[in-house]
């Protein structure tokens, strides 16, 4: 999973991110999930707070942030829905 904070006034483009990831990363290194956050928390020593993100996982019922899922067939990132989440958990959708 990748967690992204957009610059003010920027808009997230699923197609552009997919193209960039496909061009520069091997298949095994591509993030299957992308989380768009308003702010990424840091500690007093400016390290990113990852424990809470790890505990929340990628369940759209738990996370309030926008989540996207890598869809190689459509060659884009698509919004992660409850149906997609359940398909992944039931192993009917392979990553």
TrEMBL record:
It comes from Varanus komodoensis (Komodo dragon). The keyword Ligase applies. GO terms for molecular function: long-chain fatty acid transmembrane transporter activity; long-chain fatty acid-CoA ligase activity. It comes from the Eukaryota. The keyword DNA-binding does not apply. Keywords: Ligase. PANTHER family: LONG-CHAIN FATTY ACID TRANSPORT PROTEIN, LONG-CHAIN FATTY ACID TRANSPORT PROTEIN 2. GO terms for cellular component: endoplasmic reticulum membrane; peroxisomal membrane; plasma membrane. This is S27A2 synthetase. Belongs to the ATP-dependent AMP-binding enzyme family. One of its GO terms (biological process) is bile acid metabolic process.
């Amino acid at each position: 999973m990748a967690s992204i904070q957009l610059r003010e006034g920027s808009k997230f483009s699923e197609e552009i991110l997919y193209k960039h990831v496909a061009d520069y990363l091997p298949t095994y290194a591509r993030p299957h999930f992308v989380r768009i956050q308003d702010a990424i928390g840091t500690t007093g020593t400016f390290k990113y707070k990852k424990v809470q993100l790890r505990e929340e996982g990628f369940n759209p019922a738990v996370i309030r942030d926008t989540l996207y899922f890598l869809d190689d067939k459509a060659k884009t990132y698509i919004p992660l829905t409850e149906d997609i989440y359940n398909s992944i958990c039931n192993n009917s959708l392979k990553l």
